[in-house]
Structure formats: C-alpha cells, structure tokens
Write a structure and sequence with these properties.
Distance between the termini: 37 Å
Largest sheet: 9 strands, antiparallel
CATH class: Alpha Beta
Radius of gyration: 20 Å
Mean pLDDT: 93
Helix content: 10-25%
Bound molecules: 5,6-dihydrouridine-5'-monophosphate, zinc ion
Length: 344
Amino acid sequence: MFLQNPHRRYNALSGDWVLVSPQRTQRPWQGRQEPVPSAALAGYASDCYLCPGNQRANGAHNPAYSGVHVFENDFPALLAADSGAAHAPAAGLLRAQPVRGECRVICYSAQHNQALATMPLAAIGAVVDVWAQQSAELGARYAWVQIFENKGELMGCSNPHPHGQIWCMDALPNEAAKEDRQQRDYFSVHGKLLLADYAQQEEAQAERMLLGNDHWLALVPFWALWPYELLLLPRRPVARLPDLSAPERTALAALLQQVLVRYDNLFETAFPYSLGWHGAPFGADAAHWQLHAHLYPPLLRSATVKKFMVGFELLAEAQRDLTAEQAAAQLRSLPAQHYSLRSA
Ligand code: H2U
Ligand code: ZN
C-alpha cells in the first residue's frame, strides 16, 4: 500500500484513530510457526456445564437438547428488574444511571468438541437463525441486543463447548453509541449508508478483501486494531439480524465457515476471537445503520503469541505493526480446507 511510514488511520465507524507502524514489519511473512497440538476433545464431557443433561453451576440441569440451545445466564451481568438505582445522580461528576437487561447463553451444538469453524453448514445456519430470532425477541424489550461469542482461553473463555452469549440492555453501550453517531452523521450529510459506501470502496481496492459471496463480504477493515481483525458486511442495506432473508442467512453461514476455517488454518490452532453483531438499536429509526459483525482475534505471530493492548495503547491510542493489507494477504493465501481434515 502507499503508506510505508508511521501513520494514523481513521475509523470511520467509531470515530477513533489507530496508529500504524509498517516500518516495523519489513521482514517477509514466514508462514505458520509453532503450532500447538490441542488435546482431542470428546463429543460429550461429563464435567461440562453446557453439555446436554448436565448440571449447571447453580444446580439447574440442561435439557437433553440437540441442535442449538438457549438458556438464561445463571450469573447475569444485567437484571430485568428495576435495579433501584433510580436515585443515582443523573448529572455532575459522580453520575450514574439505572440499567435493566438480560443475559443468555447460546449453546451452538450439543457436541462438546464442535466449533463454528468445524460445524456442518446447516448447523451454522441454525445458529444464524437463533441469533436472528433472539435479537427479534429481546429487541422488543431492549434498545441494545449484543450477540457475541468469546472463543478460546486467551479470550477468557474457560469452556471449549461451542457457545456464545447475548447481553441486552435498555441503554446504548459505548461502542453502539459511537457507531450510531458516526453512521447517523454520514447518512445526514450524504444520504447514503456509511458502510455501504465503505464496502464499495473496499471491493474496488481489493487489497483488504478476504472473501465474498452473493450476499456477504469479509474484509480486514482499513482501520483494524487487531492484527487479523475482520468485518462482515451484507451486500444490501440490512438494519438488523431479523431482517436477513433466508438466502442471506444461508450465505452468511457459508461465509462464517470459510472465514473461521482460515482463522484456524493461520496458526493451525483453534483460533481464539471475540465475534459480535452490531445491528441498529431497537425502538429507534434505523435508516442510517448497516448491520455488520466484528471479529477481534488476539493472536499476533503464532498460536501462543498474542497482541497486548497495553502501554501506549491503553494510555494513548491503539497501535499495530502489521498493516491491514498484509493481514488480508496472509489470510487470503490460506487453504480453504480445515487443517484438521488434511490427510497427512
Ligand atoms: P464464556 O463465554 O465467557 O465462557 O461464558 C460462559 C457464560 O456461561 C458465563 O457468562 C455462564 C457464565 O455466567 N454460565 C452459566 O450461566 N451457568 C453455568 O453453570 C456456568 C456458566
Ligand atoms: Zn460440553
């Protein structure tokens, strides 16, 4: 790309800046390094609190489910009942506000040893359908429905059983508020969707593109913070997950599989990440908002070397050495077949 020297990139979606230092990565890509053999897991684990029939930490038992299973989080960060903080000061330096919400856990599969990357397409499609259905149901009660997955021990996820979460709340969280403001401002000036115009430019430039199909694009955003960060975008204007058509859901399942297989293949490991959906806030106008998913993976150089957001990043602004263009090129070069299926 044109920028070989230190520069800052603007995140048009959040309004934040990121420092990019390409001069620190002059050495060529060396390919995968030190793959970590992961212990083979069984399809059922008697000590797993997510496996069918097992007891959870609060004593409740999971049903003998098959397919996708959703339950109320036993240790929710938000409560549906009024928190009683109504008397908190709404202005001044010691400001607080009451918040209501709910938290749920989504088991993607009854199989303890599956993952989105390795699940059959139809099973990934079933997860997409549940994401859409849950966001419609909870969106009737809450302004923000955050669907996400924390994957891998590096992301603080202790249980390998394939699962994600939903936290919803009646206020807009920080990231949602930033994206709402940026997309709203762009729409009011240009009369067009920020992320639709952005996708068009990315497709034209091609250097940060990873994959595309009839309905979706996967790319390393120009403003990526994490080394192998990705953004998933629908090709047509779609405000929220429940608005996705059946063909768009099927195509999303396919894209997710292709993207996550490449992630696993990068370091030949069960690639850790946080994945999450940002759809338009509920109960408000949505003309300015384009649905999208963020994938934030922490790994930098190998299955064990992660990027730390510390020091300058914590105190000043996020910084990366590897450019978004280099990351996209590396991801594009990976095989489409999952490494675990490759015959020796
Ligand atoms: P992770 O995705 O970070 O592993 O979190 C799993 C969630 O499952 C976590 O929010 C919940 C935890 O509160 N959980 C239950 O609801 N019941 C249990 O028996 C254990 C964990
Ligand atoms: Zn399990």
